[in-house]
Structure formats: C-alpha cells, structure tokens
Write a structure and sequence with these properties.
mainly alpha; 15 helices
C-alpha cells in the first residue's frame, strides 16, 4: 500500500483550531485548462512586452531608455533573488489537503510587506553609493521606485496560494495584468506628448501597485490585514529558505556565462553573445507554464507514488515543449539574425545554436527541479546547479579564450546538460523511478501535448468570439 510522503514541510501542517475560509478549492484541477490559461497569459505577456519595449525605445530614445533602465534596474534584479522563494513556500502550504487556513493569507501578506519594505529601505539608502556622479540626477526617481518591491512581493506571494489551490484562471490573469496596465500607461503617456523616463517608471510602478491592490481585494473574506500567525510564518520562511538555496544556485549558473564573457572577451563579442541570448531565451515562455502547473500538481499529491507519477508526467510534457520550441528557434535563427539584427551579427549564429540547446536543457531542468522541491527533495537542485557551474567555469574560461563566444556557449550547453543529468539520475537511482517514465517521446505524451494545444486554441477563439 502507498505510504504518505513524510517531509519536514508536511509533518506540522495546519493546526485544526485555525479558522478556515468557507470555500475549499477542488482536490484536483484540470491540467489541460491550467496549461491553456498559463500559456495564454505567457503569450499575452510576450506580446505586451514587445509593444511596451518598442514604444519605450521610440519615445525615449537611446539616452532616455538608458535612464529608465537605471531607475528600474535594482528592484527588477532583486525580485527573483530577494523574495526568498516565499511564493513557492506559500504554494506548497496552500496545496495541502483540506480547507485553506485564514491565517495563511494574512501571514503571507505581512511577510511579503515586511520583506519588501526592508529591502526597499536598504536599497534606497545605498543608492547614492551605487549611482555614479553622472546619474545622480536619477536618485529621487530611483528611490520612489523602490515601492515596486513590496508591491511585487505581495502580489507574487498571494498568487502562491492561487497556484497551490489550482486556481490558474486567477493566477494567469494576475500574471498578465501588470504588463497590460503598463502598456496602457505608456499609450496614455504617448498621447500626452510628454514622454520622460520618470513617467515611464511611474507607469510601471502604478501598474504593479494596482495589481497588488486587485490581488489583495480578491482575498477580502480572508482578511489579509488580519493578525499573522507566528508559527506559520516561521514554517513558511524555513521552507522558503530550503527552496531558495537551489534557486540561487540556479540563478548563478544561468548568469555566470555573461560574467565570464565580460571579463575575457572584447566588447563586440559581448554584443554578439547578447544577440544569441536574446534569440535563445525567447523559448522560455513555452516552458514556464510547465514549471507553474507541475509544481502545484506534484505538491497536491498526498501519496509518494502519486507525487512521483505527477512529476514524471509533467516532465515528459515539458520535454516535448522544450525540444519543439528549440528546434523551431534553431530553424529560424539565420533568418532572425539577418532580419531583426542585421547581417553584421552573422557571427552570432553558431553561439545561438549552442545557447538554444542550453536553454532547452535549462527549461527541462527547471520543471524537474521544481517538481522535486514540491515532492520534498530540494537539496538535489543545489548539487546539480553547482556541478553545472563547475563545468561552466572549467570549460567556459579556456573555451572563451580559444573559441570566444562559441566556446563559451558550448560550455553553457554542457553545464545545463550536466545539471539535467544529475536531476534525472537522482530520480532513477534514489527515488527508484523508471527511466522510461521520464522519457517523453512516445505516443501518449504526444497525444497529451496535442490536447493541451487544442484546448489553448479553443480558449483563444472563444475569447475572440466573446470580445466580438
């Protein structure tokens, strides 16, 4: 008989005396609907990002666009590494069987406010030391933009409860809302004829603040402003830190190649590599829905066998998406570089192929690593990412010196392959999962991904008909 998974995170679940929200989420959610919703949100985010990026570049010009980047750089950089994986911890807590405790909403809300406020105050204090003399005129705008941090943390943390309970309609809507509001704000600024970096930063800040307000309002019955639970806060933070260590290791691995390149290669090589990265990273949007949905699906399983089966299922689907998008990106690479960037960047074609492969391995690794965290095995991600980092440094430095960007990109591919191989090896050797269960290229997986695609297309047409 299957045994319930025992981890440090689920041995002290919700206390029975805590008040609960009357309406419980369904025990299971539809994978197809969840994928259709998250894919639609990801596509919308990409489209709005292109529109807002083009408008910002055209309305502000190179100098103004650079000043906008200076104003928003630190908060945007800090969000993925400063939230301490609190949203994933909340998602895990919310995914557990039974009613959602009222204390979870209030506790996660105040933790996000506290975390974001502390970081905002620290950054605002050190900004005069960070900004060079020729950019100190941006100090005031950069300081008030620090309000972005608590607002973004509140939204992401409360969205963790949506992810954990399988409410991917709400989750996807909130994913796309800041980009939609920001695009509207840019169009409004364009209409006034008074474009400036500060106004663009203000539009971005307002969009995030409004999104946070909308998300808090959705939990009105749960009283997000209520008194937090100290024991629950400790548990959320402890689990978040256990998730945070592999996340930071992965973040370092994903950024180390550019650090090596800047130190060793000439400026034009850095430009070629940046173009290769821009094309390779375009496929990330095809994998992120599998990360969001897969984590929630694994975390909701009460039995070990069910959790591992869910992990294998979503990993197989992610393989098809990652490989398919990688092949499409590789096919379009010569045309994309020639048309979008110009023939002067033709030297980036080889590195782009390597980085497309590295990004495909990265996407598959993210789905597997997040699923393993949800199954109670977060530490393997630290080992796999650090091993990949060792490979990247060991091969990337001599490769960059000898073959420039092609050598470094090939080292990135090898590093991500090692990272993924260790995760797969852990599943097979330690968790006793069959290697066949982790292999995607069979008829069943193709049928499942086709069903997801058809669901997405039907939903898009249904939305179009409703709008008409």
């Amino acid at each position: 008989m299957a045994t319930k998974m025992a981890t440090p995170d689920n041995t002290t679940l919700l206390a029975p005396e805590q008040p609960v929200i009357a309406e419980a989420a369904p025990k299971r959610f539809s994978n197809r609907r969840a994928y259709a919703q998250t894919f639609a949100a990801t596509a919308a985010i990409r489209c709005m990002g292109v529109v807002s990026g083009i408008l910002a570049a055209r309305l502000l010009g190179p100098a103004g666009r650079g000043e906008l980047a200076v104003i928003i750089f630190l908060p945007l950089l800090l969000v993925p590494i400063g939230e301490l994986e609190l949203p994933r911890s909340v998602a895990y807590e919310a995914s557990q069987p039974g009613e959602l405790p009222r204390k979870l909403i209030a506790t996660s809300f105040w933790l996000a406010v506290l975390l974001g406020s502390i970081q905002a105050l620290v950054l605002a204090a050190v900004l005069p030391l960070y900004l060079p003399p020729d950019k100190l005129h941006l100090l005031q705008a950069s300081r008030w933009f620090m309000l972005y941090l608590p607002a973004a943390y509140v939204t992401a943390t409360l969205m963790g409860s949506d992810q954990g309970r399988g409410r991917f309609g709400r989750f996807s809507f909130l994913m796309a809302l800041p980009g939609a509001l920001y695009t509207v704000a840019i169009v409004a600024v364009w209409g006034t004829g008074r474009s400036s970096p500060s106004l663009f930063a203000l539009g971005l800040l307002i969009s995030v603040l409004l999104t946070a307000a909308v998300r808090v309002g959705m939990d009105g019955q749960a009283n997000p402003f209520g008194r937090p639970d100290r024991e629950l806060a400790r548990r959320l933070l402890a689990r978040g830190v256990s998730f945070y260590l592999p996340a930071i290791a992965g973040f370092v691995l994903s950024r180390a190649d550019m650090f090596i390149l800047v130190r060793l290669a000439p400026t034009d090589a850095v430009g070629f590599y940046a173009v290769a990265q821009a094309i390779a990273l375009g496929q990330i949007g095809a994998v992120l829905p599998f990360v969001h949905v897969g984590f929630a699906a694994v975390a909701r399983e009460e039995e070990r066998e069910g959790a591992l089966a869910a992990l294998a299922h979503h990993f197989r689907l992610a393989q098809l998406a990652a490989v398919g998008m990688g092949l499409l990106a590789a096919t379009l690479t010569p045309w994309a570089i020639r048309v979008l960037f110009g023939t002067g960047f033709s030297a980036a074609v080889g590195a782009t192929y390597f980085l497309i492969g590295a990004t495909s391995f990265w996407g598959m690794g993210q789905v597997l690593e997040q699923g393993l965290r949800a199954a109670g095995h977060p530490r393997v991600g630290i080992v796999s990412n650090l091993a990949g980092l060792v490979v990247l440094v060991a091969l990337g430095i001599p490769g960059c010196l000898r073959f420039e960007i092609n050598g470094l990109a090939a080292a990135s591919l090898a590093a991500q392959f090692v990272n993924l191989s260790i995760l797969v090896g852990f599943c097979v050797a330690r968790l006793k999962m069959s290697a066949k269960s982790l292999w995607a290229f069979d008829a069943t997986a193709f049928k499942e991904i086709s069903a997801v695609a058809m669901s997405f297309i039907k939903r898009m047409f249904a939305n179009s008909d409703g709008a008409a």
